[in-house]
């Protein structure tokens, strides 16, 4: 039912867009109608070069997410469980967190260069924070009574972490990963566009807009990027519902 409602809203938006352009209210050169844009997408998906760009962006996103999770989850567990360490690192974390990743592009290009490493680094930098803070928050939300009960039975600290803390923290951590997935994809494509990568959807959009001035290609690339983001978010949402059904049941019982 939710999918039907979403598709109905999307279809309505596309029909309004098509009607406005066909009525001549907007020049088709500046804003091609959706029928033209989707026809162009169909052509592009048969173009090996464009498919390579999509794969390059998706692969960079996947690598960035793997690195972000590998860094942020253990760091969040450590900071969430060791109070003095959390307090000692609070100043530097709060200093680094608000810095926009795109503001670091010139520095990253100088230090790392303009290869795939640049967009992966910037995506990791932006993605680490939501995972880290959700993990720290998750640690704070664990019921102290459960931890104390495990300790009273002589359960080792490592066993408490794996059998008590992690299962109760997992839904919060996964929410952070979902948030980071969207941020990471945005950063990958933005860096490709702003830094002029050799491959990627952002590079395709940059070339289409600056070299050929083809708005149909620009919008086609943009829509493909949006579809990729939708697929990632929808896939993670479905995975989360499957993995954490017990958490939804608990919330329903509490409500």
Kindly state the percentage of residues in helix: over 70%
Shape: elongated
Report the structural category. mainly alpha
**Total number of β-strand segments?**
0
CATH superfamily: MetI-like
Q: Write the CATH architecture name.
A: Orthogonal Bundle
SSE pattern = HHHHHHHHHHH
Distance between the termini: 23 Å
CATH class: Mainly Alpha
Radius of gyration: 22 Å
How many domains? The number is 1
Low-confidence stretches: 249-255
Strand proportion, as a percent range, falls in under 5%
Arithmetic mean of pLDDT = 83
Largest sheet: none
- The quaternary structure here is single chain
Instruction: Return the CATH topology.
Output: MetI-like fold
Number of helices: 11
Give a brief description.
It is built from 11 helices and no strands. It is mainly α and 255 residues long.
């Amino acid at each position: 039912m939710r999918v039907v409602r979403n598709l109905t809203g999307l279809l309505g938006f596309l029909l309004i867009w098509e009607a406005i352009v066909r009525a001549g209210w907007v020049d088709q050169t500046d804003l091609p109608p959706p029928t033209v844009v989707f026809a162009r997408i169909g052509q592009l998906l048969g173009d090996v070069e464009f498919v390579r760009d999509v794969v390059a962006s998706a692969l960079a996103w996947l690598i960035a997410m793997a690195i972000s999770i590998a860094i942020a989850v253990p760091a969040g567990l450590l900071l969430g469980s060791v109070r003095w360490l959390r307090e000692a690192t609070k100043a530097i974390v709060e200093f680094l967190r608000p810095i926009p990743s795109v503001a670091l592009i010139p520095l990253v290009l100088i230090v790392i260069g303009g290869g795939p490493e640049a967009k992966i680094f910037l995506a990791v930098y932006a993605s680490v924070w939501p995972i880290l803070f959700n993990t720290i928050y998750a640690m704070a939300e664990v019921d102290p009574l459960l931890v104390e009960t495990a300790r009273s039975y002589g359960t080792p600290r490592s066993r408490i972490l794996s059998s008590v803390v992690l299962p109760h923290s997992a839904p919060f951590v996964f929410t952070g990963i979902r948030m980071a997935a969207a941020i990471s994809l945005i950063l990958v494509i933005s860096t490709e566009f702003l830094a002029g990568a050799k491959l990627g959807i952002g590079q395709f959009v940059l070339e289409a807009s600056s070299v050929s001035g083809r708005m149909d290609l620009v919008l086609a690339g943009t829509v493909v990027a949006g579809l990729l983001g939708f697929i990632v978010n929808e896939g993670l949402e479905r995975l989360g519902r499957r993995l954490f059904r017990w958490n939804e049941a608990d919330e329903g019982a509490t409500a």
